[in-house]
Structures are given as structure tokens and as C-alpha cells.
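Newbie here. two chains, one complex. Structure please?
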Amino acid sequence: MTAAATQVTQRNPWVPEWAAIRSVHQEVRGIATYDLAFCDAAAVESYRFQPGQFNMLYVPGIGEAAISISSDPHSPGRLLHTIRVVGNVTQALARRRVGDVVGVRGPFGSHWPVDTCRGADLVIACGGIGLAPLRPVLYHVARHRADYGRAYLLYGARTPADLLFRDEYAAWEAAGIEVSTTVDIGDDAWRGNIGVVPMLFYSLRLEHHRTRVLSCGPEVMMRYVIFESLARKIRPHDIYISMERNMSCALGFCGHCQLGPAFVCKDGPVFTYREMEPYLHVEDL
Amino acid sequence: VAPSYLPIGTWVRIEKPGLQSIVDRLRELGYRVVGPTLGDGAVVYGEITTVAEMPIGHIDVQDGGYYRLIKTDEPSYFDYVVGPHSLKNYLFPSQATLLEGIRADGSWQMRVPDPPAEPWAVIGPRSCDLHALRVQDRVFLQDRFVDPAYASRRKRLFVAAVNCRRAASTCFCHSMNTGPAVNEPFDLAMTELSDRFVIEVGSEEGANALASAQWVPCTIAEIDEAQRLPRELAREMAGRATSAGQTAGRSSTECAVSDGSVSHGRHLETAGIRELLMSNLEHPRWDEVAERCLACANCTMVCPTCFCSRVDEVTDLAGESFRRDRSWDSCFGAEHSFMSAGSVRRSIRSRYRQWLTHKLATWIDQFGTSGCVGCGRCITWCPVAIDLTEEVAAIRSTAS
């Protein structure tokens, strides 16, 4: 009986591509960045990604985890994943060494609107490891600085020791991105802001009609980023958020990442607030 | 004079025992033939070689949380309605290996298991089941990615569908526009009359399956009768819904009368259902149903469209081999929405709401169709007789 299949000749989407760990860089406590190099030359050649997309990383015998890509999309040969150790797969990844091989499926999902934001002012508001999926945007903006108006990075972490990519802030500043940081708890050396990320909006002068907000972090943080954005009359479709759900197949098959009508793995992870508004404030949805 | 081949759209009749020749022919063509069988007190699909294995004379009586088989003296093959199994069990099996690998000379060798060599031929799916098949096609074949295992099984599937001439009290295909008359593609569509089957040929493979059957072209009167049966049933189902209505809190079984027909039935008002449910996400009825729901996941297991699955990593102690096994999962489990920060849907209230709103509302956003085909399996196999038609009606009656 004929099925109305679109086509079945595409690559089996369940099969990962093997990649070797080229380097491991310990960023902060519990978070390390892995540089992966595909073993197959054709995969090296063909692999491209957009800022904000993610891969499924696979450790044989352990399982898969969805990890966003934290490197520059203009240099797809350098494929970085910044990983916080939280579950059994990320723990297993933390035990891998340079030269070990892991599986990669991807890239998956929607991406940050770097193309449609040309000419706009950008507020990149993120917390904790939420900076990792936005770092590709920072690289892109720095590389194409003239394409964008003002650009702000508002970034917060638990303590100064938890601030990711600290050695790159100067380069981003030099590229014309204003970097503001804040922490929940300071230490003796900290002279910066104490408080939550949305608070950093108070130091900005924004023209609402030309501002785009790109946010990734804990959901509660993003809710207040949205609140501060809306309070400044930034339009719901100009606020972009990256949602996290249980993405276990990344193909829209397994059903785990559903959030209202969305499969976060293929319709997201990047959504506009306008798309998410009906669902973001419903508890336990 | 009978033609020697059967064009698509031809109607033929065979004597009832002639069904065996179709089974034989399908086996000859290389199919593994699946048909209704008796198992654990229910009509379940199983591989068959003779029609004697089919539940001849059995009818099912179904209601919320209730399923019983009755043996009658009628020589009917298909007067049971639907059991807990559906085509999903064959195209998207409850357990299957996606990938396997071994470590050889320090590197991983990976392979995708071969799809089963023999295709399935399934005898007995109803109109609702064919609609459910199309719903799952949209998930596994027609969305962004194609699931290769599903595609392989699906492409070679043979379906001998059956037009219903009975409905269970749990059936509401008339509400979902999914039956009872078969109106989706099939290889053969059979209608059972008192002493014969009237069969419509739906594909060349269907004609091929009739090659050794003693078929006779149908008379106009026979075709009329075969088409009238599901039409009358549809009318009866629509009528009983309006006469009996939705009676919340009824005792579940006493309405079923001994001949298996029913004095009440289900109906689901689908007008504006997406907006109704999505604008009532905080309706008190979710709390009420959560008091009864056991989160046992039975409804999702028997649902012919539910597609959630999980992948488990199976490995040996030495870590020298792995297997990635996919099995059915359910949104009623706490792990379903698990993230590093904990489960998103912590309460049964939130999980029942997810299931119902997905099935009847957000499925429409995702796939352009309802996720419900009105087969009523979730009502029958719910141990506490939760009835989605009743839940929707309750929300509708006090919607905000």
C-alpha cells in the first residue's frame, strides 16, 4: 500500500557522525569547551551551522545530549561545544580526553536572526551557560560590525568565578560591543554589578523601534528580560528567546520537547516572544 | 464473464471461507499475514496462517474501562470493533533497535539493523485505523525528517481494511470524520454480509492478493448493500449521540446490552476545539480529572496515533558494544519532560492536560490534523474510565 512518503533517500537521521576531541578547555568550574573535528573528510567539508543551533553529542554506551554550538559559524571547521556537567552524558563527556571519539548529529533547530537584525541595535541578554549559544552571534556581529547599530551584551553569572569567556570581553569591547556583567554574589576582588541580568537594562538608552533583544538563560531570567524589554516598548516579535526542553531525538519524532504547539527541537530553540507568549506564563506546561 | 484481472475500483464477492485463499496468496507473495486473533480475552493482532485463528463469532462490548468478548453463533469474522492493538504495533513497534555498534581495534563500528525482510499484510484495520496511519505518516514521513525504519515498513504494508457494521459505545469516528466507512487508501476493503464478503479492490497488489480466490463480480445490489451498512451505522451513531447525550458520572457498564449493541454512545463536539482547549489551560476541570487519572499511560499505549518514544542505551559491562533501542514512551511519565532542572510537568494535572491538549488542539498546529481518530481505545482501556469526550464536554460547558 503506497505511503505518501516525501522521500526516503535522505541520510538516516539517527546515525551520528564520528568526531574526535581536538582540545578541551576548562572554562570555569563545571564547564568546559570541547573542540570537535569530524573524522570523515566529507563531513568536515559539508558541515555548516547557524548561530544558536545545537548538535546531539553521543557517547557510545552512555547516550546523547543536546548541546548548543558555541563557536564562530564562519569557521565551521572549529566546532566548539561549551558543556556544563549536569547529567550522565555530560559526566561521560567530562571523562573523555583529547583524541577520544564522540558521535555528532546535527546541526538542529532554529537560529538567532542575525540576518534579519541587520541595521538594528542588539541587546544580547544572557545568564550562566546561556552565553554559549549566543557567542556565535557575538563573533558574527564583531565580524560584520558595520551591519549592526549599537550592540550590548548583558551577562550575569552566579559569582565572578562563574563568568564564562572572560578573556574575550576585551576583544568584544574592542569590536564595539558594550559588555556589562553582573553577578549574584561578589567576591573580594569584584567591583562590578551585583544583581540580576534584567537590572542591567536600566543603564541602557534604547530606541525601541530599532532594538532587537536576544536572550538565553534560565526561564525566570528570560521572563524578566522580556518584562524589561516590553516596558521599553520593544515589540514582542523583536524579542528572541532560546528555550530549553527535553530534546532527546532532535528530529520531531520522540515528543519530549513539546511546548504548546512547538517542538522545541525543530521549531526552536530560538523563538520570538510573540510565538511563546501564550505558553511561557502557563505553569507546568 | 469475469475478467482475468481486476482493475482498481472493482467490487467482487467471495464466500466467507474464501478468505483463506487471500491469506494463502498473501503468504505466497512473501507477506507475513497479521489478522485479528483471540488473546488474553481481547481481540488482538497476531500473525496468522489460517482464518480459523480469527475470532469468528466474537463481538466486543466496550465502555469506559470495560472490555468483554461475547461469543455468538453468528459466522461473523469482523463484528468485533477495535481491540487494543492497531497498525502502530507493526509500523512503529513498541521496541526496536535503531543502531548497534561494537568497538573493534579501538574504534567504533556502527550499523543500522536491517529492516525485517518480509513485509506485513494486515487484515482487519477499520477506517479509524487507516486515518491513524495517515496521522502517523505525517509524523514519521512527511515532516522535516523521515524515520527510515517506519518508511521501510510503511512502503511495503498491505492493508485489507474492513468496513464496520457495528460500533462500540466508545466509538466516535462520526465526530472526527474518520469513519465508519473506509475512505482512505487501502489494498482491499472488505464488507462482511451475512454469508459472504464484498471486496473493493484498492490497488494492484490488492488485485494480486485475490488471484487465487474464487471471486465473482458483485451485482449492483451487493455493492449497494455493502455501501449502505457503514452509512446506516454512521446515522445510528450520530443519532444515539444526540438522544443519549453526554451523561457525566453514569455507571459505565449497565448500558451495554447483551447483543453488544449499545443504548448510548460518544460524541465529540470539535467546533473550535483548538481555541476552546488552549484558552482554558487553567480550567478547574484539569484538577478534577487529575484526581482520577492514575498516569498509568494506558491511553497513550493503545492510542493508534500517539508517537512519543524514548531511546535507551544498552551496553555490555566491558563497554565494548552498544545498542540504541527505541521504545514507546508516554507524556504521562514524569521523566517525559525531564531536564537538568527537573521535570517540567510535575503534576498529573499538567500531564493529562498535555496529552489532551496535544491530541485535540496543538496537533492541529503541528500536523494540520487532529491527533484523535475517534476509535475510543483510550476510553475503553483507561482503568478508571476517564473519557476524553466527557472531559472536553465538561470544559466546554464551563469554558472561560
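Moderator note: Chain A touches chain B at residues 1-8, 10, 12-16, 18, 60-64, 86-87, 101, 218, 244-246, 248-249, 251-256, 258, 260-261, 263, 266, 278, 282-285 (CB under 8 Å). The radius of gyration of chain A is 19 Å. Thread marked as resolved.
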